[in-house]
Structure formats: C-alpha cells, structure tokens
UniProtKB/TrEMBL annotation:
Protein family (similarity comment): Belongs to the CDC50/LEM3 family.
Entry protein name: Cell cycle control protein 50A-like protein
Gene3D superfamilies registered for this protein in UniProt: P-loop containing nucleotide triphosphate hydrolases
Provenance organism: Lates japonicus (Japanese lates)
Cellular localization per UniProt: Membrane
Amino acid sequence: MADDVLSSCLGMAPIYSNASEAEEGAEQEKQPTEKTNTKSKPEKRKSITEKTVKAKKKKKSKQTQCIIPQKKETEDEKSTKPPKKRKKKKTITDVLATSEPKPGCPADLQNLITQHFSDKRSVIEQEELKLQDSCFLSSNDLTHSLSSYLKQVCPKWAKIQKQHTEKSSVVLLIVCSSALRTIDLIKQLTTFKGEAKAVKLFAKHIKIEEQVKLLQKGVTHVGVGTPGRISALIEKEGLNLQALRYLVLDWNWRDQKLRRMVDIPEIKQDLMKLLESGILNGCKDDKPKVRVMGKEKAKSGPLARRPDNSAFKQQRLPAWSPMLTANTVLPFFYFMSLICMLLGVWLLLTVQSTQEIKVDYTHAGTCNMCFETLKNMSNAGKSCTCTVEFSIEKPFKGDVFFYYGLQNFHQNLRRYMDSRDDAQMVGRKENLKNPSIYCEPFKKDQNGLPIAPCGAVANSIFNDSFTLTYIGSSGASHRVPLLRRGITWYTDKNVKFRNPKMDNLTLAQVFEDTAKPLYWQKPVYELDPHQATNNGFINDDLIVWMREAAFPNFKKLYGILYRANNPFTKGLPAGTYNISISYNFPVQYFRGRKQVVLTTLTWFGGQNHFLPIAYLVTSSLILLIAVVLTVVWLKFGKNGKNMEE
C-alpha cells in the first residue's frame, strides 16, 4: 500500500510483485473509465459554491493520499533538540565594514595619473609621467596611528629635522581633502614631530598672504594642507619644494558623504595640478619620496582601542626565558642558599661586634622607694631622686649612645597618635591659640586657656632625667659628659617642628595666654634652662618623644658621649658607674618598666639579631628544598617512565 501511495505521489505507475496482482490492478483501472463512459446523459447545473466545496475536498483528499504517515515525535525528543539561534541583524556599520574598499596603493595613484592625462598628453608624454617603484615608500598599512605610521615612513626623522634650515620650505608634506581633516592630522602629529614645527596650509579663514609670511618667518618642517592651497603657494613662490623629501597622500580617508580625496572632482583636479607643478619631475630624481596613506585607524567598534602595530605594544620584542631543568634549577638553589648563609653570618658577626648594656631601674636600688611614692596620685608632682650602680667589664670603644627605654607602653594606639596638632607644632599662630579638636581632652585647661603643645602625646612626655658618673680605679669620680643636642632627625628639627614667629618678642611673650600640659612641671618655653635655643617646640627631648614608636617595647635617644676630655676620649672605660635619676615618669598604671641602655653602633645600626637570624633561617629552608629536589631527581629524574608513574 505504501508503494502505491509513493508511486502516486511521484506520478509513476504502481509496481506489482506478481501476475495476479497485476491483473487485479488492471481491472481496477478499467472501472473509472467505464463510469465516465456511462455519464452521457445531461445533468443539472450545480451551483458555484457546491463546485468549489467539492474541489477543496478533492484537493484535501489528494494531499492526504500523497503524505507518507510518520511517527509522532515524543516529548523527550522535542526537549533534547537544541533551540534555534536567531540570526543577528546586520547593522549599518557592519555593512560599511564589509563593503569598505581596499587601502590605497601606488598602482592606484599611477592609474589616476594615466587616466587624467590620457586625453591631454601623447603616448610618449604619458610614458614620461610613469613613476618608478623607487619613488614610493614602503610601510605597514596596519599601523593604527598617524605618528607610528610616519615613524615607519620616516625612520630617520630626528636627524632630518635637525639638518633642515631652509625657510619657505618643508621636509614632509601631507596632502588631504579638507581643512577639518588638516586640523585633525596636525593633532595626531604631536608624538611624531617632537620639537619640529608644523604649519596648516588650507584656504578656509586663512589668507594666502598670511601663510606666505608665516613660511618666510621661520623654519618649518611639516606642512599639512589641501592640494588647492599648496598649489597656490607654489605659484606665488611662497612654498619651495626643493627641500621636500616626503610626500604623503591621505588617500583612503572619507568625509561625511563617504567620498575620498580623489572622488571629489575639484580636489582631484587640484591634486593633479599639484603633482604636475614639479613633484612628478622631482620623483624621477628620487626626491621627494611618495607614500599613499593606507587604511585609517578604526574610530569605532571592537578595533577602536587596538594598540599600534609596534614590536613593543604587540609584544614582539625579543625575550629570553630560562629552561627549568635539573642542571639549572639545582645549582641556583644551592647558590642562593650559600649567599643567604654568608649574608646571615656576616650580619651576625657585625651585630655581635656592638657592645650594649641594659640597666632596669624600675625597682633597682633606691628607685624602689620612688616607685612606691608615685603610686599615690597625690604625689604625682613631687620629685624623687634615686641612684643605681652598675659596672662595665669591657670598655666601650668609639661613640657611645645613651638611651632610655620603656616596656609595655603602646605609643602606636590610634587615638593616642591622633591626639596632637601638627599645625601647632610647626609654629602657626592661629593654631597656637585655637588647637585642633583632635587634642581633646587635652585641648584647653580648666581656665579655658589653650594648651601648648596640646594632645595626649605631648602631655605624656618622658620626664626622667639622668646624670652618669664614672668611678675610676683610684676611687675618683668623673661625670660622664653627654651631648644633649643633635639627637633628632634633621627634617624634624628644621621642618616639622618650629617655634612661632618672634616679631621682636621673647619666647615667653609668644606663648603668653597659653597653658602648659596638665602633667608637665614646666611650660614649653622653659624646658631647657641651660640653653635658650633649646626651648619651645624645637626642644630636642620633645621632638624625640613626639616621634611615636611602632612597638610597645622601645628605646629613645637621650644623649651621646662627648669624647673631648679624658678618660672618655676613646669611649667609656671599663669600671663602675653610677646613675643619678630624677624619678618622675610613672609606669605602675600601665604595668610598664623603665631602663637605661648604653650601646655602640655600627653601619648596620644597634644590636639587632632579627635580620641575621632571618637570613640564616631562609638559607636553611632553601638548602632543604635543594636537597629534596636533588633526591627526587636522582631517584626519578633520569628515567622518564618512573617520573610519569
């Protein structure tokens, strides 16, 4: 049955498998012919509607007979089919991009010259107008900026620019179609031209006499303009082409009407006139060189930000990458381990060459009595003096530095560090009488007077004082001279901390109507009674204290040994020493401790073991890694199969 339907659909006779089927089929074919012959009697005319309905039914029946029955698609098969993707409609930019003409080439210029002069010149004259290949410059049309394009066209521009000294002439001439295009090209020339001078050569709003004067006024290196104005300048002898070495034609740029320079009849005529005025004859002597500028940089779309086609921006610079093999990696690890070990040992020996002694005087000697006295807040303003004795076994040679140290004092707390007024410390009078709000609650005293210096940092200044005495072998005592000046950084002393302007006043008059910090015993202008220049905001002890420490345990410089007199010319001799301490700074409230540190310094600084230990630990780790890699290589590296397993 299916074969009958298929054959009827294709307009072919049915195919039968045997003779009996063929006879039955022949009888069935005869029946309709007999029926048609019997219909010889006239019938009534049927209406048009009945005929059309029957015709539609016949068409439907014929169509159903010709359709081969197919299995209905299951829901699972429909779900497995991927959704149809909609085709994106092409935009105008896509159409323009695909229909964009090819970049200009020397053959296009040659064909244009031939077509233009075909009616005016003879065959022999036309042959003379043909330009040789040596007349044209070769450059990369994929360059995406005018400056990089011209760098390829004129690789020796810097040298040519310096050699050009003639007036009313240019070395590089760029010919374009309009004044707006001229301005745009000059803006793009900034990177290329450097110190060279560029001039605009077009007729819009600029008289030709002005351009002639401008060219005669000084040396011009680059000219950018339209062919009509350039030809007019040549005719009036305002522009000389003898020094011209490069001619660039803006061939493929299009205006708003999508017209190129050669598509506009007037500009095309001016261009041919310009070429005929002396450029074509000069090209025969290879002067100037001509370049037809190719495809311009895409200003929109995905290529708008593509970098220039240079070796640096396109990552084509020559590079060297090491081959990481066992023969290169293992020696490198051993070498680095050796270097770190040598540095660590050297720094350790340097640190050990320094001499240092620490004396904790919080509870030492008679200072324990002072400690107990200051526990009572009512005794905060009272002075207490104590002495501590210590001995030095080996002499301290060279410069000796005297430090005071504090433990468990957190100067790096943010609220503490912000509680200061740097503008006041630099000597501004407006901040002297009106301190910053950050100084609260140490901004003003109980009487409403501004505090100078204000803030918690200045209020908590370390106010212990020391007197160091050396007891010689004969029992004679010598006071150790300490330099109390020159212990600050230069920038702190001369930049960050300054006294207000005196204006023929004393320092006490300058700080009039200000109050001392709450915990201070003296005002700021009386900190050093022995040296008048060491008072106010430039006091060395104040400056040293105002530089906050990063860690809770720190030391700050108090003085430097003065080695002018015996027996301290070579340093501190070995023996017994006595420190007389004015015990004023309380530490019991924050569970801190106080100490005195005497030390010598090297180029590396004081006695600090952290850096040498860090180098030695790093050396050990690198050495351990090198040994592990060596074992792995000896066991697996020589046999690739074992390494893969």
